[in-house]
Amino acid sequence: QVQLVESGGGSVQPGGSLRLSCAASGFTITNTRMTWARQTPGLGPQWVAIIDSSGIGKSYRTSVQGRFTISRDSATNTLNLQMNDLKPEDTGMYYCLKGYTRGQGTQVTVSS
């Protein structure tokens, strides 16, 4: 059974950093295309970052390019999202996804 458990969210001031993690079970994230997405207030779901099955190909939403980095740790079967220089518009519930399966999410709030 596929399970995804996100963690690492919190409240930070603009310019701050957070590192999100997604612990995967029931499958191996190596050789799996994985996505970080967010649900922001007043907007629909947005994809944020994607890592392809090879782990080499990475794509980022334009608004986070250069600030966010997606990575995976095969030793712990964990997907990560390093978020730097956070902005108020990054506020939202963040999810990791394998296809259409997602975890419960972790809340990120960026506010002064």
Structural summary, described in words:
This protein has 112 residues and is mainly beta. The strands form two sheets. Strands 2, 4, 5, 6, 9, 10 and 11 form a seven-stranded mixed sheet that branches. A hairpin with a 6-residue loop joins strand 5 and strand 6. The protein is globular, with a radius of gyration of 13 Å.
Could you name the key traits of this structure?
single chain, 112 residues, mainly beta, seven-stranded mixed sheet, four-stranded antiparallel sheet, 11 strands, 0% helix, 52% strand
Helix/strand layout:
Blueprint lengths: L2 E5 L2 E3 L5 E8 L8 E6 L5 E7 L6 E3 L7 E6 L4 E6 L8 E7 L2 E2 L3 E5 L2
Parallel strand pairs: 2-11
Antiparallel strand pairs: 1-3, 3-8, 4-5, 4-9, 5-6, 7-8, 9-10, 9-11
Brief write-up:
This protein has 112 residues and is mainly beta. The chain has strands spanning 3-7, 10-12, 18-25, 34-39, 45-51, 58-60, 68-73, 78-83, 92-98, 101-102, 106-110.
Helical fraction equals under 10%
H and E order: EEEEEEEEEEE
Residue-averaged pLDDT: 96
Determine the structural class based on helices, strands and strand pairing. Answer: mainly beta
Shape: globular
Distance between the termini: 40 Å
